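ok, trying the design again with the full structure, not the truncated one.
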């Protein structure tokens, strides 16, 4: 478990409250990270905070400013931000419960694990968790996270809760602005049927452990090759394809997808071969 939570405060359902901490549920620790390097010296470039008039400035001496007009700013230091106190700064107050399907997937954002602080708050946390489980609902509340008030959707997961920050309505673009220009085309029913069969043959359970970031792996291989001074191999350019006969392409795709089918058919045909001996015993 990370030593530093993303947020600490209280979870509140009506008059029941308990202290909780939020921990980011995802990690980018395995991502390949690069630094800016001066190729002439092989030195890593340092970003220095600089005032155009006085030169370099210590970052700790800086404050934030909001531009109200060109080159005019209202200044804020940390004490000013501490004065902006909302209930959601330190409390996630559950305001309502909804079905998970009622929330458009475009609004779901970053997940966080919600963990109760040890002590008396654990029992109150368990009560809220179990009540949510019996109702099979998602709780909606608000909290201030990273200088912004966000709606959150909380759902039960095991012994804890997961809080997903939700994007605001203003952050989500209208799909119709992009989809309205798509031409209206009546799809051929036979082609749709073949495509549906291809989809059925590729039906599977979602397993995120099987996904490999091949680009990330290729980067690591390139890094190792450069470290050893080996030559690099470029990725081949894909051939341009121009599907003239869509029906033929669908049929060929269906044939390719159904390659394993003969093995299953053979196994099913072989099963009845065990029945004749049973009839002989009966005789």
């Amino acid at each position: 478990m990370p030593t530093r939570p993303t947020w600490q405060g209280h979870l509140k359902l009506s008059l029941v409250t308990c202290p909780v901490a939020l921990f980011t549920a995802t990690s980018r620790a395995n991502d390949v990270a690069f630094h800016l390097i001066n190729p002439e010296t092989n030195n890593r470039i340092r970003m220095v905070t600089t005032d155009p008039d006085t030169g370099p400035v210590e970052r700790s001496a800086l404050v934030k400013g909001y531009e109200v007009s060109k080159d005019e700013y209202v200044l804020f230091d940390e004490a000013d931000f501490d004065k902006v106190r909302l209930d959601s700064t330190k409390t996630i107050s559950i305001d309502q419960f909804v079905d998970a399907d009622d929330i458009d997937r475009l609004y779901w954002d970053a997940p966080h694990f919600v963990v109760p602080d040890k002590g008396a708050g654990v029992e109150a946390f368990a009560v809220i968790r179990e009540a949510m489980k019996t109702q099979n609902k998602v709780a909606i509340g608000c909290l201030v996270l990273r200088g912004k008030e966000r709606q959150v959707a909380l759902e039960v997961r095991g012994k804890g809760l997961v809080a997903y920050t939700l994007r605001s309505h203003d952050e989500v673009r209208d799909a119709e602005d992009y989809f309205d220009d798509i031409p209206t085309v009546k799809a051929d029913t036979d082609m749709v049927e073949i495509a549906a069969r291809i989809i059925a043959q590729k039906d599977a359970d979602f397993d995120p452990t099987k996904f490999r970031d091949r680009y990330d792996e290729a980067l690591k291989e390139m890094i190792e090759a450069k470290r050893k001074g080996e030559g690099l191999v470029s990725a081949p350019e894909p051939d341009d394809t121009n599907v003239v006969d869509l029906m033929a392409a669908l049929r060929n795709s269906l044939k390719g997808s159904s390659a394993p089918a003969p093995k299953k058919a053979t196994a099913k045909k072989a099963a009845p071969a065990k029945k004749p001996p049973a009839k002989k015993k009966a005789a």
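Keeping the full-length input from now on. Residues 7 and 95 are 19 Å apart (CA to CA).
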